[in-house]
Hints:
Elements: E1 5-7, H1 12-20, E2 25-28, H2 34-40, E3 47-50, E4 59-61, E5 67-70, H3 75-80, H4 82-87, H5 89-96, H6 101-104, H7 109-114, H8 165-171, E6 175-180, E7 183-188, H9 189-192, E8 211-217, E9 226-231, E10 242-250, E11 257-265, E12 272-273, H10 275-281, H11 288-298, H12 311-328
Parallel strand pairs: 1-3, 2-3
Antiparallel strand pairs: 4-5, 5-8, 6-7, 6-8, 9-10, 10-11, 11-12
Helix pairs in contact: 5-8, 10-11, 11-12
Amino acid sequence: MKPFRYERPADAAGAVATVAAHPGAAFLGAGTNLVDHLKLGIASPDLLVDVSRLPLDQVEELDGGGLRVGATVRNADLAAHPAVRSRYPVLSQALLSGASGQLRNLATTGGNLLQRTRCAYFQDPSAPCNKRDPGSGCAALEGWTRYHAILGASSHCVAVHPSDMAVAMTALDAEVVTLGPDGERRIPVTAFHRLPGDAPHRDTVLRHGELITAVELPALPYATRSRYRKVRDRASYAFALVSVAVALDLEDDGRTVREARIALGGIAHKPWRAERAEEALRGLPATEENCRAAAEAETADAHPLRDNAFKVPLVHNTLVAVVRDLVGQGAPEAPGGLEGSR
Length: 342
């Protein structure tokens, strides 16, 4: 591990100024992702600026009914928060499906958004990887691709984003609040992560020295009827092969879709907002036939790799199952349990 300096600023402005002034500096939150990368040699900052003790650990009500989630709110605390469980169950379920209880007790909201891909080639310094070492190539293109992208990839990178939380937040129209050298900025979460293009080493649109301070969830009344389902190779502590987050607004008949928010995980370099599927469902009964047609519209441009063609029908089947469950649950109400987190 490369030696580095460590600083703990007193406030967010001081943290931003310190990192912005040092090209080799990085923010340190819980470190659940960064520390692994330091050990592997994937990351080698010469200065770590600790933001874990800044006063950014509160969940606050917003005017109009939304929530402001501080960047250092722990994943376990956010999943258990009464307002999240009752008004945004899809977010609680997504958080509970990610990692182990020990990691959720440590990992933060901001850090979860910024975690990097778990592509085996990215985490192997001996393998060529354009995300880790721009211009070196992509070993995954000729390698094992079971976990890799089917949408939005490029010839430079086929890795997928690992976050469950970010998929739910994408379905909820969340907004990322940052503080940078030029002041505060608000970024829709749908625009926060990047597709790889020819610069896969840039995961997000953040500038150097820009710090996530909060994520804001808008008031979305029908988010009470929402669910997250994650399909993975084993029952716990595995990243998604495919995941689906859905919030559904139904007409008075309980079957016709007035509005939908759908996001997919495990299939692209970023959490994938399924706008084609949303549009295809709008105004139609939420039948299996219509849901499957919506899923097929979303995956029409899919380009499966050698080992992951199964992801296309898996997206279709999982979306159908989630919508079926939501239509069958009756009138939205505060969830009494934590079903759907497996």
